[in-house]
Amino acid sequence: MAPKQLAALALVFGTLILASRLPLALGQLFSYDDVNFAYAIGDFDPRVSRPQPPGYPLFVLQTKVLHWLRFKRAESNLLALALLGSTAAVVALAWAGNRILGGDAGLCAAWLLLLHPSFWYAGLTSAVRVQLALVSSVVAAACWRAWSGERRWMYWSAVALGIGAGIRPAVGVLLFPLWAASAWRAAPRWRERLRALALLAAVTLIWLVPTVAQSGGPATYARICWEYLADQSALTSGFFGADESRWQATVWWLLVWTLCGTLAWPAAAILAWRRGEGFGLTRTQLGFLALWLAPPAAFAVLVHIADAGQSLAMVPVVCLAGGHLISRAAGELETRLPRGHAFVFLALPAALVLIGYEVHSSWVLLWIPLLCLAAGWLLRLRAAPVQSWIERRQALLFLLIPTFILHWLIFFAPGWYHKGPPAKGLRADIQQAWADIHSGLSFCSLAQIRSIAWTDDHVLGDVRRLAAGRPGRTVIVWERGITAARKAAYYFPHLPVIVLTPKSIAGDQTPVVRIVRGPETRLLEGPAPLRVDLPAGGRVVWLVLPGTDFFRALQKIFPLQTTGQVWYHELAAEGGERLLGGYRLAWGADSSAAGDPSSGFSTAHPAAVPIPGAER
Questions:
Q1: Does the pLDDT of residue 599 top 80, yes or no?
Q2: What confidence tens digit (pLDDT) does each residue in 58-107 have?
Q3: Which of 179, 186, 598, 613 has the fewest Cβ atoms surrounding its Cβ within 10 A?
Q4: What distance in Å separates the CA atoms of residue 164 and residue 210, rounded to the nearest whole number?
Q5: Which of 287, 316, 337 represents a domain boundary (last residue)?
Q6: Where are the beta strands (DSSP E) in 151-247?
Q7: Own/partner long-range contacts of 517-521 (Cβ < 8 Å, ≥24 apart)
Q8: pTM
Q9: How far apart are the first and last CA of the chain?
């Protein structure tokens, strides 16, 4: 594409990104990852989750640049990066796709990506994850030039991969096989290949060396990265301790987050198929796409994927495949006049809109592919060759509309939920798979975003009122609370937040106390029962999950009061202590917290050490 075309695409897609994201934007940091990035603007140190390992140094650099440009509020800073990153990702896919598959494949893929539920979800919740799609598309475009034999692009693709890895290090590892294969094809001599590899290493070291140095050296950096990966993967991967049902759910979520749009492609697929040519993809193109998709997909299945935004290294590949089908199908409509074409062109969009309003969300997943299949078959039936009967842009729009409607319905559905009747055997497995599919759809919907934001708004508001009623004598205690501890600490930097967690999600269940005050965190651990000091005569605000064993034990030892989803109680002025699971809660004259609850914590505790991961 010429520079003028790219500029025009950036203007069009940028406007659409603003129109579809800005009205839905949140006024708060969405997750503990966002809080970590907010803290990293002022002090980069992955050892204490500023941000979480492996550090994302070049993304943090972007936040610092915007901060220098007067985006002082972290919320505004990350929103601006999400909007800019989303626009750049869509334009990059258009550029990459047209080069890789030809025709309008890239342009159609960009339209498919624009409203893809996973991409839309990440655009509102995670500025760093939308850049997965950007890095994936840019690196793939550069690698394709090398793959096609343009030797100098072996070096440019190395630069692109090295920079992309600095934005999100995992994507550098996952796209390395694609780069290596492209470099191998581009240069026949080992000397040139090694030069390209050395260039990749040099670009990577530009950001890796400062990151490792800021993290305490290579050994510490490797340790915190491994501990963070193992801890985060414990709930998604069987290799790291997840049970079979959770691992199966993760696989279904991956399929939903990457392939949900394919349900609207049957018409395009039928029209794109030609006898003797298939779908028109060469072995070279298929091999490239497979190598682009396979490593991120394998990592997601075998190691970790827990959020729709984490699928965005793969979604551009899927969108590009769909873009190719739509581009090729539009060519078929240009040259062959289908019987009954006017009826199909009017009936299909009308039927899709109708079922969106009238049909239960579960049935939409069945009706949309069936209607598209019927439309494709009718358009293929008894088609006669003609010079031209429809403009290409009209054909493209008609073929894109089903996916637009499906993406819109998935993202805006008021609630994806399914619970089948009790069953056994194969029926039980099917019911569980159907439930996992629905939960995956829920986790990339606007309803999920608003539910979390609404809950956090109310929780933080309740905490603010409770703290104002007992100034200087309030402490927050968190144990699997519905609002992240890191988020509570960010919005109440003057309040100590005591986080009660095991040492790791899976494996070591040694009780641990993380004491958080704003960006500062101290870790206390030891044999059970581990002592936790509380302010005598103060107010303890509990951010806990009701219905758990911990909550039931808490109810037995303290007279809890509630304000919505926050529980609290008043401690007596005289000394006392209670056992709660692996912890001994103590308050009174011998407790340092009794003298100054806002100061923190007893000097008799073990020495504070940095923590290697984000609060859960």
A1: no
A2: 999 999 999 999 899 999 999 999 999 999 999 999 999 999 999 899 99
A3: 598
A4: 16
A5: 337
A6: none
A7: 517/489, 517/493, 517/600, 518/489, 518/490, 518/493, 518/494, 519/39, 519/42, 519/43, 519/48, 519/50, 519/489, 519/493, 520/48, 521/48, 521/49, 521/610, 521/611
A8: 0.91
A9: 45
**What is the reported pLDDT for 241?**
78
**Could you give the number of structural domains in the chain?**
2
For residue 434, being part of any structural domain is answered with no
Counted residue by residue, the chain has a size of 616
**Whole-angstrom distance, CA of residue 249 vs CA of residue 432:** 9
Report which of 208, 155, 216, 165 is spatially closest to residue 186, judged by C-alpha positions. Answer: 155
In this structure, what DSSP letter does residue 603 have? Answer: T
In a domain, 307, yes or no: yes
Residue 267 CB neighbour total at 10 angstroms: 28
List strands edge to edge, sheet with 583-587: 530-533, 583-587, 576-580
Q: Does the pLDDT value for residue 316 go beyond 60?
A: yes
Q: Could you tell me the pLDDT band of residue 392, with boundaries at 50, 70 and 90?
A: confident
Q: Are residues 66 and 215 in the same domain?
A: yes
C-alpha–C-alpha distance, residues 99 and 97, integer Å: 5
Residue 414 lies inside a defined structural domain of this protein: no
Domain residues for the domain of 13 are 3-337
Which pair of structure tokens corresponds to residue 503? 């040492």
